Amino acid sequence: MTEREKEILDLIRRNPMISQQDLADTLGITRSSAAVHITNLVKKGFIAGKGYILKEADYVAVIGGANIDIQGFVPKPLILKDSNPGYVRISLGGVGRNIAENLVKLDIQTKLFSAIGDDVYGKKLLEESRGSGIDMDYCLMLQNTSTSTYLSILDHDGDMAVAVSHMDIFDNFSVDYLKSHGPILNNAQLIVLDTNIPQPSIEFVTTQFKDRLFFLDTVSTSKAIKVKEIIGAFHTIKPNRYEAEALSGISIDSKLDAEKACYYFLNKGVQQVFISMGKEGICYGNHQHIRFLAAPEAAVVNATGAGDAFMAGLVFSFLQEYSLEQSVRFAMAASTLAISHENTIHPMMSVHSVQNIMKELK
Ligand SMILES: Nc1ncnc2c1ncn2[C@@H]1O[C@H](COP(=O)(O)OP(=O)(O)OP(=O)(O)O)[C@@H](O)[C@H]1O
Ligand SMILES: O=c1[nH]cc([C@@H]2O[C@H](CO)[C@@H](O)[C@H]2O)c(=O)[nH]1
After folding, report:
1. Are residues 192 and 245 in the same domain?
2. C-alpha count within 13 angstroms, C-beta hemisphere, residue 137
3. Which residues form the HTH crp-type domain (predicted)?
4. How far is the CA of 305 from the centre of ligand 1 (A)?
5. Are 21 and 29 in contact (CB under 8 A)?
6. How far apart are CA 183 and CA 177, in angstroms?
7. Ligand approaching nearest to the C-alpha of 154
8. CA 300 distance to own-chain centroid
């Protein structure tokens, strides 16, 4: 790279939207010679595309929810319509955000596209997610809007008994916002989506960036149905049993039913299907075969986020070019680790810890 090219790259880095005329004026050269330098920088691979998007290290884009989770834990079986002694914890959550944090812990650079309000919770989400290593620069920050919250009560076995999600802020997660970040999304290695975002925004991403591969987390039965008609647009999906039922219309009461649902999704064009069935395990398949992997016996402290860790494990495995069998084992090991800690994201989540658990899976 010539000295002049270095100067130009530096100016673009500071202001990616700078015009050729402003570049020329700043450097005291003509606009046409600024244009030649830019063409050369593109040819040499330092500029990745229009709008002067600088080529940077590989990254995954995650588009989805970021919440504050308020979770109640009880030591004894829940008594409904009564006040149960226990304890309450506040932590960061949101399916997309949880997947992003797990990915960062698995050493994958990750940019999160989500919506956050300008309240105390929003600031907490922004600072702590940034602190954990997620690139939060593309999140939508909305003034006079409340950050979304998720309130859940876990039963004494660590499984969710009931929950309420208050995520109205995502009504503002528009197609225009996604359009404004088009080049960044288009340069991602792959795009993970959750169904917290509005249906038109999901459809926009899957049609606009169709050269990318999409991994889908279906979030909940009520939100999963947003993608019922476009499920074939996703390369990899991980619904739990109930979300798979809502999407396929097939009741899943046995492994055989889960297999039928896998066929349904594969026939729609999905390449890899993972139907998670809590402590029973996973029914998974691709166009070669469909199989079942039983989950190991595990001491569950908090099952919240098991699916998010699983999805992060699938993304990691895909980028490592693992086989389907290796992928499901790595992802299951990641969720087994996740449920062994009170926090939604296990503080010790790492490639090394997951590989250690993987060795113990049958
Ligand atoms: N009680 C449990 N015992 C053992 N393993 C479990 C248990 N719960 C979850 N898992 C593991 O985590 C995987 C994903 O769990 P699950 O089916 O609950 O996903 P999910 O409903 O998407 O989770 P979440 O929405 O809480 O993130 C399971 O396939 C299993 O490997
Ligand atoms: O509708 C939703 N419910 C729950 C979540 C999040 O799921 C996480 C656990 O998988 C939890 O952190 C919650 O915030 C969400 O993003 N949307």
Report:
1. yes
2. 8
3. 10-55
4. 8
5. no
6. 12
7. 1
8. 23
ipTM of the complex: 0.98
- Is the domain of 166 the same as that of 92? yes
The verdict on 75 and 8 lying in the same domain is no
Q: For residues 59 and 57, what is the distance between their CA atoms, to the nearest angstrom?
A: 6
Confidence at residue 82, expressed as pLDDT on a 0 to 100 scale: 97
Structure tokens at 31: 């606009």
The CA 336 to ligand 1 mean position distance, Å, reads 8
- Residue of 222, 360, 243 lying closest to 311 (CA atoms): 243
Atom 3 of ligand 1, residue of closest alpha carbon: 279
Distance 166 CA to ligand 2 centre (A): 10
Give the count of domains, the chain. 2
Residue 73, pLDDT score: 95
Taken as a whole, the chain contains a residue count of 362
Ligand nearest to the CA of 95: 2
**Residue holding tokens 């650079």?**
109
Within the chain, which residues score under 50 in pLDDT? none
Nearest to 314 by CA among 302, 303, 322, 304: 322
Q: Environment class of residue 87 by beta-carbon count within 10 Å: exposed (0-12), middle (13-18) or buried (19+)?
A: exposed
SS3 state of residue 281: strand
10 Å CB burial of residue 137 (0-12, 13-18, 19+) is exposed
User: What does DSSP say about strands 214-217 and 236-238: parallel, antiparallel, or unpaired?
Assistant: parallel
Verify that 41 and 80 share a domain, yes or no: no
Q: At what angle do helices 306-319 and 324-339 cross, to 10 degrees?
A: 150
In a shared domain, residues 224 and 291: yes
Which residue CA neighbors atom 16 of ligand 2 most closely? Answer: 94
Q: Do 8 and 38 form a contact (C-beta atoms < 8 A)?
A: yes
Q: Which domain holds residue 80?
A: 60-360
Tokens of 248: 């396929």
Cα(60) to ligand 1 centroid in Å equals 23
